[in-house]
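Lab notes, practical 5.
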Amino acid sequence: MTDSVTPERSTDQNRLLRAMSPEGVDLLRPHLEPVTLELRQVVYDSMAPITHAYFPTDGAISILAAAGSDESVEVGTVGFEGFSGIPLLFGVDREPLLAICQSPVTGWRIAAAELRDAVEHPSVREVLLRYAQAYRIQAGQASACNRSHSLEERCARWLLQMHDRARQHDFILTHDFLAGMLGVRRAGVTVAAGHLQQSGLIRYKRGLVSVLDRAGLEAAACQCYRIVNDSYDALFPAEQAATPSEALAGQ
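Output from the prediction step:
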């Protein structure tokens, strides 16, 4: 659903919009609609037209690839650092991937046609293409991670990604949903999350996760988490800023 504009909803809360020149943002601003998406809401379906691009300010969108009949695995995550709808940059309005909210999401959306027009501006095009490169690195690293690292390492990485994009200390998560994101059986996720909880890194109760030891969770995750974050910082060096979870820690 679209929302009315509030003082708390600023374009600066999205890393890409903050990275654009004032002229680039002014070009987009008349076409940006504040929006709130629900948990598990489909942003776009596989091979369905991508009607809008979304620039989250908090929460996260998962990009899923089919991995067999009735199975899928997460190949990318979009939060306050990016936008959904990369195919639109290349004149394509659909792809064989599913985009779904892995948490409630607030942010901005823009119609596909308006985004395609705005990409003609050098600042808009340059920032969004840099993000496309960062996202390509994330997707490639996810593929390597799913093949090479233990389920507990991958689980820790995913929880860190979600914690980065959350604007509260706790976030909603079920074992079934996490298993779907990682492309594994629920029983494996239960064991991995249980071990992280026993180690005092998280608290997991009734579908609600609390990160208790952020540094410990980073140590438990594979190096893919840091590789992806470093790639974003290298591509957007002037925009390095506290993640929402880090901002909360300072409150």
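Observations recorded by the TA: Confidence is low (pLDDT under 50) at residues 4-8, 242-251. The beta strands are 33-37, 42-44, 52-58, 61-66, 72-78, 97-101, 105-111, 170-172, 202-205, 208-211.
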